[in-house]
Amino acid sequence: MDFLLGGCAATCAGLFSNPFDVIKTRQQLQGELIDAASETQRNPYRSIFKSIESILKAEGISGLQKGLVSALAFQFTMNSIRLGIYQTAENYEWTRGSSKFGTLMYSIFWGGISGVVGATVACPLYMIKTQIQATSHGKYAVGFQHNHTGTMDALAGIYRTYGIKGLWRGYPGIVTRTAVGSSAQLATFSSFKDFFVQFEFFQQSVAFTAFAASMFSGFFCCVFMSPFDVIATRLFNQGVDANGRGLLYRSVWDCFSKTLRAEGLHGLYKGFVPNYWRIAPHTILNLTFWDQFKSWKDLYY
């Protein structure tokens, strides 16, 4: 049941956060391996508002929900596993140490482990989501254009061309991204929940406690995860040769070093603002839904 509740919570949150995910993906791919001076010549996604304007002009209102099916499938698959494992660890008190520092370290560990397992299973869906969200046309196209017609078309096409291995291309990128993000998110969420429940106001409402804790958790998650999110997006979206090898990057480190050399530290934090506006509401909604669903489960079962 804990696994199912985690997946349902993430799916509910994904409906609201997907437009920011589309914007974040476009900004992370815009000016890929181009220095900042050259990038300003063509910049349709230079801000959130400019990004929305560009997407509406090129693709209409539906463009803001591009990749929604694969995004929700990824959220359900990854978070049912991730939150289910983490909740199981909490149920057995494996996240509790003999001190606050020990508890934080155990929470970080289990947050990372649960994230890695979830990302391993859901990796193909994240790749498809990224490639569909990046697809546009004309001057609004950024990054490599895969031109999938939908989630099932993308999965079938990649499998036919590159086999099962092709569906996990870029896997190290999402594992690194999710391990860091999950550790930061779940550890800080648990820590802030423990802090807020000391106050009488928060003791009266599970929803308010989860909402306040997830606001802070979302910020820390975004700060730590953003560089790895950029790397994962670029690894998954790059074109490949006939053998399925990436045309731009060979590994996480290769992507990191090339991005840093070409674009500086700014390149590793591209899309930070929409990423925060994606992560913060998603964290708030996901973890608030999760806690609320768990409280209903405890009430009726």
Automatic annotation (TrEMBL):
Stretches that traverse the bilayer: 104-128, 206-228
Keyword presence, Glycoprotein: no
GO annotation, biological process: transmembrane transport
InterPro entries: MCP, MCP_dom_sf, MCP_transmembrane, Mito_Carrier_Antiporter
Keyword tags: Membrane, Mitochondrion, Mitochondrion inner membrane, Repeat, Transmembrane, Transmembrane helix, Transport
PROSITE patterns: SOLCAR (PS50920)
Gene Ontology cellular-component annotations: mitochondrial inner membrane
Topology in the lipid bilayer: Multi-pass membrane protein
The protein's name in its UniProt record: Mitochondrial carrier protein
Organism annotation: Aedes aegypti
Source taxonomy: Eukaryota, Metazoa, Ecdysozoa, Arthropoda, Hexapoda
